[in-house]
Amino acid sequence: xxxxxxxxTAETVRFWHRIKTKEKALFFEHLSNLVEGGVTVVHALHxxxxxxxxxxxxxxxxxxxxLVESGDPFSTAMKKLPKTFGRAEVSIVESxxxxxxxxxxxxxxxADLRSREEIRTKLKAALTYPVVIMIFLAxxxxxxxxYVVPKLVPLxxxxxxxxxxxxxxxxxxxxxxxxxxxxxxxxxxxxxxxxRAWISTYSGRxxxxxxxxxxxxxxxxxxxxxxxxxxxxxxxxxxxxxxxxKTLRLTGESTGNLVFEEKIAxxxxxxxxxxxxxxxxxxxxxxxxxxxxDFVQIVSAGERTSTVNKVTLRxxxxxxxxxxxxxxxxxxxxEPAAIIFAGGxxxxxxxxxxxxxxRVTEMVA
Length: 365
Fold this sequence. Notes:
Blueprint: H1 6-10, H2 21-36, H3 41-51, H4 55-69, H5 74-79, H6 87-98, H7 102-157, H8 165-179, H9 181-199, H10 202-214, H11 218-239, H12 244-255, H13 258-272, H14 277-284, H15 293-305, H16 308-364
C-alpha cells in the first residue's frame, strides 16, 4: 500500500482548506464499517486517506497514521491533533479502547457528527433565500439612491417648482448617501471589525452569547439547538462509560456558548460534591433561562431509573424536531418582512416621483 507522508500532503494545503463536520462524520463512519468488517485501524486509516480530497484533512490524517504506526494508541494520536479532533471525541475513543468497543465508539461519533451537520445544513438552507433577498434589496436601494435619483434631480430643479415633501425627502436621502458614501463604508467596516475584536474577548463573547439566547425569534431557536447539543453529548459520553464529571465538562465545552459552558461547569462542581444531576441543574438555573424545565425533569427521571444516557438521546431527537419547526417559523417571518421592506421602498420611490411629476404638470398647465 502506497504511503502518503504528511510533508507530501502539506505542500498542497491552502489557508482556505477547512475540515468540515461532514468529512469527519464520513471518516469515523468509514473506520466503523471497516473495523466491524475485521480490518485493522491502520489499514482503515490508509483506505480513507487514499480517497479523501481535502488536502488539510489528508495532511492531518497522514500525521495520525504516522503516530499510530509508531505505537501510539489511537486516542493518544488524536490528542496530538487538537485542531482536528475535539476532547469529547478523544474521550469516547479512549473509552472504546479500554472496553474493546472501538467500533461502537467510531459509530457513535459518526452518528453525532451527522446529526449536528444535518441541523446546520437545514438552518443554512432555510436562511439562504431570505438572506439573498435582503442582500439584493440592499444593493437595489444603494443603486437607486446613488445613481437613479441623482439623474432625476435636474429634471425637477429646472422646473422651478416646489417639490412635495416626500420627493424632497427622497432626494435628501440620496444626497446623504452620495456625499457620505465613503464615511458610511468606513464606519460600517470599523463597526464590523470592532465588534469582532470585542467578541474575541471573554467579556464580549459572554455578553454576545447571552444576548443570542435572549434575542427575539432567534433566541429560542438557538437555545433549543444548544439543548440538542447538550442532550446528545450527555447521552453519547455517558453511554461510552465516561465519568459524569468529565462528561459534564466536555459537554459544556462542546456547546460553543460561554453561558451554557459556565452553567454546566457549576453543575459539574455541585455533582462533584455529591449532589444529583437534576438537582444541580435546578440550583444553578432556578428560573430555567438556560436549561428548559422539561430537560431537567427528564434528566431527573433518567437518574431515578439509571437511564440518563438513553433519555437524553431521546430528548435530543425531540428538540431536533423542535429546531426544525422553529426554522420554518423563522423563515415564514423573514420572507414577509423582506417583501414588506421592498414594497415600502418601492412605494416611497414611486410616490415621490409621481408626486413631483404631478406638481410639475400642474404648474405647466
